[in-house]
Specification:
Length: 262
């Protein structure tokens, strides 16, 4: 796999591509939005994800170094995510990348951005990606779902930590009710792309993904949910655990389905 950083007027994208000859219309591409509570993380801290995906799926991966809170609160990260997708669509990132065979993916805070990106595209009348893959995403600023209390002190991510990150990302509380900030604030879930949602059983965010899945299904969207039994937030960093490997298998299978139209 090759790796190359591309500058888009100050926004950096890291492009990972297979070393074999590219397909005629360019590499199918996964646009990846990293986690980290919107206030930490970047291309180096999360390149493990690209390598894990590349081991399993023969596609290109484009990671986005979006601006971080609290210095750059909402909507900065979403704007950067949209810029990345739109630039991919115009073929201006690299000509070796497909401009239409695109799937967007995010884990944790990046899952918020991936889901919000699709909502923003719908709002502006733009074409959706072929699919969205959300891995233990944050989808509401409110603690009215059961997992926020059942798993309040779960390992690696407590409800208090989620609360602090949200307050830094969304300092204006009126944004807590915006679907482009927190997608579970939406009242309309139609015209969104096919979706894969992977959550961890012992995660304060578990029910965010489950509730989103049900709302998508009610709106007639093809949504596929996987609950990683026995897993906690951030588990994808260790695929030596069989249950984590199973979550990866589900994620990879559905991303491949989206890219092939299955």
């Amino acid at each position: 796999m090759t790796q190359q950083d591309v500058d888009l007027d100050g926004l950096t994208l890291r492009v990972y591509q297979p070393e074999t000859e590219q397909p005629e219309n360019g590499w199918p591409t996964l646009l990846y939005l990293h986690g980290g509570g919107w206030n930490m993380g970047g291309l180096d801290s999360h390149d493990w994800f690209a390598y894990e995906v590349a081991r399993r799926l023969h596609i290109a991966i484009v990671a986005v170094a979006y601006r971080l809170a609290p210095e750059h609160p909402y909507p900065a990260a979403l704007q950067d995510s949209l810029t990345a997708l739109r630039t991919l669509r115009t073929g201006r990132v690299l000509n070796s990348l497909s401009s239409d065979r695109l799937v967007v993916c995010g884990e944790s805070a990046g899952g918020t951005l991936a889901a919000a990106l699709c909502m923003a595209l719908r709002e502006s009348g733009e074409k959706q990606p072929l699919g969205q893959a959300l891995l233990y995403p944050v989808l509401t600023a409110f603690e009215d779902l059961s997992s926020a209390h059942e798993c309040a002190d779960a390992p690696f991510l407590t409800s208090a930590a989620v609360r602090a990150s949200i307050e830094g990302y969304l300092p204006d509380r009126t944004d807590w009710n915006s679907p482009l900030a927190m997608p579970l604030a939406a009242t309309d879930y139609t015209a969104l792309p096919p979706t894969f949602i992977g959550v961890a059983q012992f995660d304060s965010l578990r029910d965010h993904g489950i509730e989103y899945h049900h709302r998508l299904l009610e709106a007639g969207i093809d949504s596929r949910l996987y609950i990683g039994q026995g897993l906690v937030h951030g588990c994808l960093r260790d695929d030596s655990i069989p249950e984590v490997a199973a979550l990866y298998e589900q994620f990879i299978r559905h991303v491949a389905d989206f890219l092939t139209g299955a």
